[in-house]
Amino acid sequence: MPVDQNISSRINLMRILLISGIVFVHVPYDLDASPFIEPNGFFDWVRVFLGESLFRIGVPCLSAISGYLLFHKGLETFDYRRTLLSKSRTVLLPFLLWNFAALLFVLLIQHFGMGIGYFPDLWGSSFGEWLNHTLAFNDFPVNLPLYFLRDLMVCILISPILAFLVRRVPTAVLGVLFLVAVFPALTSGIVLKQSILFSFTLGIFFALYRVDLKRLDPYALPIAALVLALAAVLALGLFNTGPDYPDTLNILRNTLAILGAVGFWVISAPLVRTRLGQRMANSGSLSFWTFCAHYPLLVLLWMVWNRHADAALYPVFYIVSVLITFTALIISNRLALRYVPGLYEVLTGSRGRRRISSSPSRQVETLGSGRAAATQQQR
């Protein structure tokens, strides 16, 4: 089933919207600045609402999009070998490069006695811990959010099995994976974040069974309002019981993270028709750049802040760090795209090809120099 322009634009919009939300999930804090000691009242509830409730929907939703796109042309045309070669370039290589860069940065600052307690102690790590820091073997990497790329690559590796099961026993496989994703005591032993495996498989289901992705669009506003209301109520419970949530709230949070993706998807229908929505949908590889680069920058800002300010001013850090992070990422993304397009293409897993080819300055440069146009081809 082809992905029409509307669906494609909405997917791009969802990526930048959800990844921007993930930035709020990773704004660091310590015990003194914890939202659960409630020194800042309503502001702390907002932190919990954004970081612990609403934007936890981001990873499952992005996983479902990935599963859907992998099989949207049907199982018959799926080329496993070609897919692995492609995803090695677009998923695995960026994971290794971004994580290795963060690893070198942490090694450097820890050599001079900085960064201990902010990042894992790399100089004191065992071989097993190094496997996790570098490759996310069975725990999170040093650039923490990149676990998503690790889990996504694992899902791609087993995608033929998942597609076979979805074709044969869709209810059973989705039911089992949903239980594993929702109940904290259960694990698949395959991925680090269990919701990714379920959501990726759900995306495959949508693709293979030709589910109409626009079916709920007429109900976009009430569905989105319901999701926001549920996230707000959940945040209230998390705020009053955290940081060690009871099992019931953990189950509810995991459930909302998965099912709440429907609310984000349907709201993309009216949003993509706005000028802001169109600009976000056309942001291209900025979403991937933001995803890979935001965490080390946030932690670095937190390290600097802790040397000069106290916990009472944490709301200032929260707001300023988010603004600095988004500004720095937008500027660095544009500079890298303009001045080192080859490196930019590698770091974004070839997601920057369309933007490179559409850049007037890049087109003039290519025509004037007579260089090969391989980097100008659209993905």
Sequence-ordered SSE layout with sheet pairings:
Blueprint: H1 5-25, H2 42-53, H3 58-71, H4 80-111, H5 127-135, H6 147-157, H7 159-168, H8 170-182, H9 194-208, H10 220-241, H11 247-259, H12 261-271, H13 275-281, H14 286-306, H15 314-339, H16 341-347, H17 353-358, H18 360-369
What does this structure look like?
With 379 residues, the chain is an all-alpha fold. It folds into two domains: 5-274, no CATH class; 275-379, no CATH class. Helices cover 69% and strands 0% of the residues. The protein contains 18 helices and no strands. The chain is globular and about 60 Å long. The two termini are 19 Å apart.
Largest sheet: none
> Order of SSEs, N→C?
HHHHHHHHHHHHHHHHHH
Q: Give the N-terminus to C-terminus distance in angstroms.
A: 19 Å
In terms of quaternary structure, the protein is single chain
The gist of it:
By secondary structure, this protein is an all-alpha fold.
Task: Give keywords.
globular; 18 helices; 2 domains; 379 residues; 69% helix; mainly alpha
